[in-house]
Amino acid sequence: MQVQAITKNVRMSAQKMREVVRQIQGLPAAQAHAILQAVPRKGARVVAKTLKSAIANAEDLKEHKQDYKEMRTDRLFIKEAVAQTASTLRRFTPKARGSAGPILKRSCHIKIVLSD
After folding, report:
1. What is the pTM of this model?
2. Cα 53 vs. chain centroid, distance in angstroms?
3. Sign of the Cα pseudo-torsion (63, 73, 17, 39, in order)
4. What is the CA radius of gyration of the chain?
5. 20 to 30 Å CA-CA from 42: which of 2, 11, 12, 48?
């Protein structure tokens, strides 16, 4: 059985978020949550929130769906954790001689899939 949680349009580049997501790949959910509490990055807080949402989704499915009754939430592990690129805001800053330089404000989507 699998459950997932997706956080969309996080205002951080996918490259920075992938560094955090790689640390929890394949770990048990409880251990991954403990690791994310110790990581001093903004991305770790967002990934922890997404992981917490995935665990809550598992508990909710266990409570309401017959197929998920035998799923044990204490044995959940992270099957897949990815950070994908989202839309980019394009802004411009003035440069010398009347030209303009681009500013790219990147976003990402975080997807966490848990399995027992």
Report:
1. 0.89
2. 10
3. positive
4. 18
5. 2
How large a percentage of the chain has pLDDT more than 70? 97
Alpha carbon distance, N-terminus to C-terminus of the chain: 6
Nearest CA-CA partner of 12 in 35, 45, 37: 45
The domain 2-115 is classified under which CATH number: 3.90.470.10, 3.40.50.720, 3.40.50.2000, 3.30.70.60? 3.90.470.10
Domain boundary assignment for the chain: 2-115
Q: What is the largest CA-CA distance in the chain?
A: 68
Give the pair of three-digit tokens for residue 115.
């399995």
pLDDT in tens, 73-112: 788 999 999 999 999 999 999 999 999 999 999 999 999 9
Q: CB under 8 Å to 25, separation ≥6 — which residues?
A: 78, 80, 81
Q: Which two tokens stand for residue 113?
A: 């899939």
Interstrand relation of 108-115 and 2-10 (parallel, antiparallel or unpaired): antiparallel
Ramachandran class of 20: left when φ > 0, alpha when ψ lies in -120 to 50, beta otherwise? alpha
